[in-house]
Amino acid sequence: MIGLGTLLNMAAIVVGAGLGVLIGHRLPARTRDLITQALGLITLIVAALNVVDLLDADWVADVGSSAPLLIVLGSVVIGGIIGSLLRLEERVESLGGWLQRRVSRGAQGTEGRARFIEGFVDASLLFCIGPLAVLGPLSDGLGRGVDQLALKSVLDLFASIAFAASLGWGVAFSAIPVGIVQGLFTLLGALVGSVMAASAIAALTATGGVLLIGVSLRLLKVSRLPVADLLPALIIAPLLTLAVAAWMA
User: Fold this and answer.
1) Mind listing the pLDDT tens digit for each residue in 155-203?
2) How many domains does the chain have?
3) CB atoms < 10 A from the CB of 29, how many?
4) What is the reported pTM?
5) How far apart are CA 73 and CA 240, in angstroms?
6) Which of 9, 31, 81, 210 is deepest in the core (most CB within 10 A)?
7) Domain, as residue range, for 225
């Protein structure tokens, strides 16, 4: 069944978050902070692996050897301008705050509210950005099976355990944007995935790697970079790639 992979992924996040909350109450704050920072380091490694797609052979063949980096740069700048004007980061945080009020009815206080929002926003960004979050649902939409999303579900299960142990129930609600984003990619795969250029996918992956670096900086508490404001770059990068490829043809 098309869409089953995304449902499995959402369930894994919710289950993992539930287990993380049970564990987290038994851990001191110092240990919970260390877990979050360890996830930041792992996210940084994943980001680096994604950015390597700047050297993707199909992408270089379509746009030239120097264009991929310029495309990513242009996508991040243009996407950042669009996202900032749309106030995407503020809207995502507002959604997190709204969910927190509905779940806890204000019982957690200011600190609990901040942790809920942080868990929701950071987990949503981590789980929605990356090659498996794109290639998995595209493959599912094409009817090629849910193998990639099954792998992502396992990874997200353990990540959500670690996240929720530190940041609480907000992590569980990241399953909502995961369902929306991956559902859209599944639909895209069903409609046009078979004709989607490999270079466009590489552009999306490399740009996603740059955004994941921003997520890792948030987890490491180096900078509260508004990564959600940069999300339009994931749309701009494939479009710029197709435009440059058409111009060079």
Assistant:
1) 899 889 988 988 888 899 999 999 999 999 899 888 876 667 889 889 9
2) 1
3) 9
4) 0.82
5) 11
6) 9
7) 4-248
